[in-house]
């Protein structure tokens, strides 16, 4: 743990490739000091992985259907098994990660790159899109914040990314030809880790007519450009990183007209002693045409975790996270604990829709190779948190485009009802 902390501090102090190196060090911290001896080294390749199990208790009256990672009340099940491979041969670097969930699996990461002498780096393949203050947005929790659920945090796409530092600036430039490939699952196009525009079979016309459901339609992401710039202020009482992220891309329509999407975000992290405050404000829009009976310009399908659902196309998204890292040097069975409180909301431009809010109170506990999340989440508009309606029954998954029907989700949020979920995620990293 001490070594990982030292690596993180050193990475953030360097002027070249600080953002990417800090990300690597933070990943080591997330493994809670997992000993290097547990990993397998074959020449320049280091092999590791993780296995995670999940316990869920919350507003789940039974019935209904939804994303398989959403779970039901009182369930204890395997969450994830993953294999990681890291390549380092002189200046040639690379990463590969494959994940298995209950009933589906997919490629998470897969890229080759080059470390230049000046500290900059080039990545080619399925890599993390540079958007927001860090690899996981503002969040420290297992649930992330609402940026993740609209494809604007911890999103992996297929393309090329260049990372460099100039003075106090950390800069990322990227081009993505498309989103990552669909994995092995039961959905049309949603067996993936990051949220993307997808093609789906479960199409319903805006008037609720389900007769169109036999034909797959939706969108595929194409030709996306990203720029991120973060400035680190020096010699201040509170360490501050202030940044901006910009994104623009095309949408290739399936049985509907093509469109495009854009997002702009300002974000900041402030750290003082062991306190960390992260804030972000984003404006995004998926610009599509509603002249096709299978779509509406206010909603369109996005998918992940083997499940697709309509998302609001036009919204503001504020997010904030406050956490404290407490190193438990006097407790032999615990290395550290990080309590946190987080809030985020999808504030939709369509007045007929209800906003989608998420509040998370929790802590991350680290010991050796173990990393455990304990989260209590409250949400009015996140279908991973409960499925109970106001009358106490289970939510249905119909009337997708109706502002008065549907479920608590990232689209119309017609139910407009607060649900809760207590979640424990047990993870062992090797």
From TrEMBL:
SUPFAM superfamilies to which the protein is assigned, alphabetical: Porins (SSF56935)
UniProt keywords, alphabetically: Coiled coil
Coiled-coil intervals: 1-28
Name of the protein described by the UniProt record: Carbohydrate porin
